[in-house]
Amino acid sequence: MKVLLIKDVYKLGRAGDIKKVADGYGRNFLLPQKMAVLATPGALKQIEKIRSQAEVRRTEQNSELKDLSNQINGLTLVFAAKAGETGKLYGSITTQDIANAIQEKSRFEVKKQQIDMQPIRNLGEYTVHVRLTMDLVPEVKVIVHREGEALEEGAPAAAPAPAQPQPVSEEPASAAEAAEA
Fold first, then answer.
1. Nearest Cα to 31, choosing from 67, 1, 73?
2. In the 8-state DSSP scheme, what is residue 149?
3. Is the distance from CB of 127 to CB of 140 less than 8 angstroms?
4. What angle do CA 124, 126, 130 make, to 5 degrees?
């Protein structure tokens, strides 16, 4: 099925692009969500209008979220978690935990769908990308250390271990409480 994108769609294309997609994806997701229309000759005549409107929308969003992107970029989040002898976590640090910690630090709500990562299941340092728009993708540093132990020497001095470590497996909010300011 050929569709004309009306909005930017992550991992598919920008508004005004003509894409060939699976029938089910187009019929069940793109068309009902008003992200695309069928690529008919009448719709193809409106490509330039759709592209110009999308460009205006994209620049507005980027200008609004630029300050937030600068605030989130380089942010360091610290999580204390229970782990085995090999460094494997008993639970995991999920996108929801990261979103809660970012919200706690920046006072801006980030949806868990905007965070590009697999669940963290081992101790260590990780770089996580937060997809605010297609153009603004700040990076966040995530440090996971064993609960009850002090941070390693390689970690920043401004990131002390939390006074009351909470296990990650109890509830997502407890991991966000362990995040460093």
1. 1
2. S
3. yes
4. 155
The distance in angstroms from the start CA to the end CA of the chain is: 49
Residue 181 pLDDT exceeds 50: no
Distance CA 48, CA 18 (A): 12
Q: What is the CA radius of gyration of the chain?
A: 21
Which strands sit side by side in the sheet containing 2-5, from one edge to the other?
18-20, 2-5, 36-38
Report CA-CA distances (Å) from 74 to 102, 103, 159, 168. 12, 15, 14, 23
Neighbours of 160 (CB within 10 A): 13
Tens-place pLDDT, residues 33-92: 999 999 988 888 888 888 888 888 888 888 888 878 888 888 888 998 999 889 899 988
pLDDT of 154 reads 44
Cβ contact 161:81 at 8 Å? no
Tokens of 96: 């929801």
Report the distance separating Cα 93 and Cα 128, nearest Å: 12
> pLDDT tens across 9-21, in order?
888 988 888 999 9
